[in-house]
Amino acid sequence: MKKLILSATAVILAGAMPCAVHAASAVSSTYSRAELQSMIREARTQQQFQILSGYFRARQQYFQQQAAAEKVEWDRRSQNIVGPLAKYPRPVDSSRNRYEYFSYEAGQMGSQADHYEGLASARQ
Fold this sequence. Notes:
Blueprint: H1 2-14, H2 19-28, H3 33-42, H4 46-78, H5 91-122
């Protein structure tokens, strides 16, 4: 399975697949840190930039979903902050910190996606 993903990535980077498949492959696959850095370093064509922007949009959506779930948990924990739950670190603080982290990461991924979308549109 890993070889299939890697070979599909190589074919996509070579530009041999139609554009519709690019978006589906970029969103559905996950890349290791080394693969992602290699893709960023080697990106030159519009399709490669679209793959990167699709990947970062998918990551942005993932972090937005995580932030929404953590916001619900933060609200739930905010209802009861007395007694033993009032000691530091309070569970409500942990939920708030996780919400802020996920929101920040979603913003970062959004700015990366915007950057690569801009590069893709400049290559047209």
